[in-house]
Specification:
By secondary structure, this protein is mainly beta. The protein has 2 domains: 32 residues; 314 residues, Glycosyl hydrolase domain, family 43 (Tachylectin-2, Chain A).
């Protein structure tokens, strides 16, 4: 080991110890949460690595629409997929008559044909902060690219994170983040919101500049190595003004109490004109490389899905080649965005929200032609 690598490793370990101490102090003293300092920059993914990841995850074949709303006045959005037993399940959200989002569950045997099961996270008019928005996505999915795609329990429960809001409409500001749990994620039954909600909000004293107006879609992974000093890592997009959204991080030891991680967003686009969206991150690990699927809009035409790569979860190299999915068909001619990507039996499945001649629906692209 070179002297430079030795001192870099010592510096990283010192950061991890300091981060853990800061978090413990904040919880024990009930003080204002501290923003955890980010690790210094280390190894970055190079262009060859990004090209290899692209070749592995690309899905040039559009299978088509796999889930629609109940009628012309209902739109569906934000798929996240997991496996339980012999079935696949899709957590998705729906909005009817532009009132607000609620979260639903669907089931499939083959990832192609889906049966709706019912609602799992509803409006709560008695709650002030999330009365009319309940937009959920799975937490603690197996993030290994060649993994089981099952959900992991923590504390004997399964978990989700969700966008909550007090106002009616399509993602009406301000929006904050909440946590809910269940004993059986494969059952269409209302999940249990925790009393500590909202766990992160743009109104928090420690909210960073890029998230002071609204917080959007989040994903929580279990980093078993605790490479950042915490087992649970959350990625989410936030905004300080309309049309400019960037992806930041938070960390936790128990899924309930969270500290923001780093002063700055970790993935951003459109900085020159402060216009453009980077959002709805999904994290997987492919051959030792952390890969973040996310959607872009505003900084290039229309809306599309792309990715970035990292070795430490903090410093990301953005792919600047061909989009993973982009508008090309009547059903996604306006938007092709908000990814959930997985590999099963040698086939890559890329679920996304499509907006086109069928309204807002959930569509699928694959690495092989499955029609």
């Amino acid at each position: 080991m070179s002297i430079l690598k030795f001192f870099r490793r010592i510096l990283c370990l010192a950061f991890i110890v300091a981060c853990a101490n800061i978090s413990s102090f904040a919880v024990e003293t009930n003080s204002i949460r501290a923003v955890i300092p980010a690790l210094p920059e280390g190894r970055l993914a190079d262009s060859n690595t990004l090209q290899q990841i692209y070749e592995e995850v690309k899905t040039p074949f559009k299978y088509g629409v796999v889930l629609t709303g109940a009628g012309t006045n209902e739109f569906v959005d934000c798929p996240s997929i997991f496996r339980s037993g012999d079935h696949w399940f899709m957590m998705y959200v729906a909005i009817t008559n532009k009132v607000g989002y609620q979260t639903f569950l669907a089931r499939s045997d083959d990832l192609l044909h889906w049966q709706k099961l019912g609602k799992i996270l509803s409006f709560t008019p008695t709650n002030h902060w999330d009365a009319w928005q309940a937009d959920g996505g799975i937490a603690l999915a197996d993030h290994r690219w060649d993994g089981s795609h099952e959900l992991e329990k923590f504390g004997g429960k399964f978990w989700l994170s969700y966008i909550g809001g007090a106002k009616q409409g399509y993602e009406t500001d301000p929006l904050s983040l909440g946590i809910a749990w269940t004993k059986n994620p494969a059952k269409a039954k209302e999940w249990n919101r925790i009393s500590e909600n909202p766990i992160l909000s743009g109104k928090d004293a420690d909210a960073r500049d890029f998230e002071k107006k609204t917080l959007y879609k989040s994903q929580i992974i279990h980093d078993k190595s605790e490479s950042l000093g915490f087992p649970f890592v959350m990625f989410y997009n936030g905004k300080k003004k309309n049309g400019f959204e960037r992806i930041g991080m938070a960390v936790s030891k128990d899924l309930i109490h969270w500290n923001r991680y780093g002063e700055n967003p970790v993935v951003a686009n459109g900085e020159t004109k402060t216009n453009g969206i980077s959002g709805d991150p999904q994290i997987v690990k492919i051959s030792g490389v952390w890969t973040m699927f996310y959607f872009g809009a505003g900084w290039q035409p229309k809306a599309f899905d792309t990715f970035a790569c990292s070795y430490d979860l903090v410093h990301w190299t953005k792919w600047d080649g061909a989009h993973l999915v982009e508008p090309s068909e009547p059903f996604d001619k306006t938007y092709a965005h908000k990814p959930w990507v997985l590999k099963w039996n040698g086939v890559v499945y890329h679920f996304y929200c499509a907006v086109g001649d069928q309204g807002r629906v959930i569509a699928l692209a694959t690495s092989r032609d499955l029609k």
